[in-house]
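Q: Hi! First time doing this. I have a protein sequence and I read that you can turn it into a structure. Is that right? Here it is:
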Amino acid sequence: MSDNQPKLASAAFLIADPARAAMLMALIDGRALPAGELAFAGGVMPQTASSHLAKLLSGGLIAVEVQGRHRYYRLANAQVALALESLATIAATSPPRLRRIGRDEQSLKFARCCYDHLAGHLGVVLAEALERHAVITRKGDKKYEVSPDGADWFSRMGLDLARVTPTRLGIARQCLDWTERKHHLAGPLGVEFLGLLCAKRWLCRVDGSRVIHVTEMGWTGLATELGIHRLPEDKLSLALEVSCSECL
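A: Yes, that's right. Below is the predicted 3D structure, encoded as structure tokens:
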């Protein structure tokens, strides 16, 4: 076989193992999951999961992202997801196994403070909306860049970017959310933006807790500015693994 031919047999071998297939399918929605969650999804012990993940990494089917002391795994690219989706249409599939958390933690999962920026389901949705409206764009090294139109938008909202002091990591960065397994907006801009939303009384911090609530005024403003409509907290996924040290 020519060296420049796709390693079809190798990729097929990796996907063919039931545990590895289950772990890959748990990642198909774009989230990044820790090894413990993937071990549960694959129905194997953590040590076995580590061996499977090493093989998937070596085979180029997944990528790893380090966040603090933790490692999160995601599909390597859209081609892997497409291959999995195509294979899934051949035979009946069952939903991936995910851990469940109690309803007492649902509000924390929905919206909370991650240090001094917004995290949780709402934080991820807000970051995605800012990207969709080209207010911010992704750069390398897990950074966000504010577009010229985005600077005007923040100014109209009441946030002067000239007063936001960048760190060595820039003005804004992508922080992997420990419940959503997707990125929310962090860095100096994330801190200032959360402060602005609280000052506008769109968001409300809960005393003695990291939980954040959205006010009626907030839902109206989010819908008007970013097309974010009321999100039903009672319908959120309750998947949870150990928390990321950078998001506590």
